[in-house]
Amino acid sequence: MIVDVAIYGKLSKLLGGKFIATKKISLPEASKIKDLYDSIGIQAEETTYVFVNAVLSDMPGMTVALEDDLHDGDHIGIFSKGYVWPYQYRDGSVFSERLQAALAKRDALHHDTRSE
Amino acid sequence: MARKILRINMTDLSATYEDIPEKWAKWGGRGLTSAIIFDEVEPTCHPLGPNNKLVIAPGWVSGTPAAPSSGRTSFGAKSPLTGTIKESNSGGLSSQKIGKLGIAAIILEGQPKDGKWYSIFIDKDGVKFEDASDLLGKGMEEVDKVMWERYPHKPAVIGIGPVGERKLTNAGISVNDPENNPGRYAGRGGLGAVMGARGVKAIVVDDKGGPGVHIANPELFKQGRRKLTKAIQAHDLTKKNGGLNAYGTDVLMNIINEAGGLPTRNFSSGQFEGAAKISGEMIAEMVEKRKAGQTGHACHPGCIIQCSNVYPGPDGQIIASPVEYETAMALGSNCGIDDLDFVAQMTKYCNDLGMDTIEAGNTIAVAMEGGLLEFGDKEGALALFEEIAKGTPLGRILGQGVEATAKAFGLYRVPTVKGQSMPAYEPRAIKGIGVTYATSTMGADHTSGYTIAPEIAGVGGKVDPMSIEGKAELSLTFQAATAFIDSTGYCLFIAFPILDIPEGWEGMAESVAGVMGMDITGADVVPMGKEILRMERLFNERAGFTKEDDRLPEFMRTEPLPPHNTVWDVPDEVLDEVYAWVHE
Lengths: 116, 584
Ligand code: SF4
Prior knowledge:
The complex is a heterodimer. By secondary structure, chain A is of the alpha+beta class.
């Protein structure tokens, strides 16, 4: 399968970008997000927001998207550490089922150095 | 020294310093502009007529030493764009200087009998009226320059461009930044037209030798300031080299686009293929590549977040400051334009002519939908700006904003609430903000409701980010907290850290309590914010607004938005709950 990847922030260097990199990447059939990370050299902990076809699939401090299946033609948007999507502008958007389940189990997310 | 109200009457060219009446004594910033408008302006008056007033108020802590990011000025009036009460908030030099002169608010009222234009100079010795006929027709770049040549001490310049002189409803009020650029705007709601209708081209404020801001309890103030500063410096979004500092507000472009919520081609899609090219990351890249301009710029002295930027052109010459997310959406994705240099150029044009960039870009998008030009047509967009600059009949229609332009072109898809066009978050994809757009006292506004971590604001319970259950109470709480922050003089961007970090929330309240000598804590923030909202809501009711006005445009309920193909489906009852308490 071929997927379309966009990386934002520091991790974009892995695909030769400065602040942003985009690339079509070929993966074996039945690949998952973790296989995509492996092929690029991304550590899951270094990511914050991850989108698959505009569905929010991961958040800062969480790595729940690793097992998500990928399909031919998918678009994956990956944000590096340092990004914050304030809930002010996030509430009511589309979340993956796995992320919804993970969020239901934890307290509110905070974006400060206490978590580091 | 107790704070004073400076009342400037343009009918008889008089200026009086009044003691602040008890009923207004506790307010600053937005709380004060809204209290004065509520008490003194007839809600049914014509916004451009003799009975409207423009109120300018620094926040509670503006002008105090080292309160972080606290140079915000509130401008209030009845809005000619929405017909509602309005508070439009700006950075730049004005707030700290007005505060340091001991002035709680400037009330600008009346209209010159001779039909002439004036500029007003305010310093520690009082107020001078000057003939402004030599400045008429001039853009704000020149007005700022002239004023710094004319007056010493690098004063604050509050002014309107030609669009404000023509009293068009997309006229904003410019405030100069520390480099004397006209890029800081009380942009939304057409308040530049209200200033124009008073016959005032510019207000110049020099605080040299002023009494300074009285701090009732310096220890409490310092304690609060310390906590707040720490929170700002700890939060990923607001700390040094954090998201806002590194990429500016346009850091949101790629995130909102990936989420499918970026208004594109007059709100017909939630994703724009050229989003990356007009994003904050690209601004940072241009600054680096062109070895000119700046990210991490401060819009006023003492801002520690520094979300502003100075954008350079290909030749290294500065084009505009700042290029912001909302602008990149309105003049970029919403017009189908993926060229950052163009967005910067149009920003410069807006800043000089005196227009709100959000409304201006969204207006061009509506003209594109109306068939006047194609989506993506940069030269065509530029030509429309020239029409606005010249004041041609078409230019005057465009200068009125989205709603008037949509009417002129017979359009049905009009992305406005209460006459004000929507900012850069598609409510069909990001539904939480739609509740705020619909119910805000200001029309569709992204700043009038910030979502809150419930445990900090005391809403209680855990918020499910996916559902609309409980969203009415949440939206109200956000709107109330915002009304309070807009009263402090702190930049609204402190909302991000203080809503995540409880000590920051407390610190904000303590710093205000310290300056004002008020007995308040973090627990008073939301109730005081609600007091402000109540005045605003009642004003709007008396102006003829009902809950039926708290609705998003009809097309958003029926037209699915790609890529999620969702419609706006939050029930009206949820929207009606948000302000049900006003009459309880
Ligand atoms: S954070 Fe940005 S908008 Fe707010 S005061 Fe600082 S520079 Fe101005």
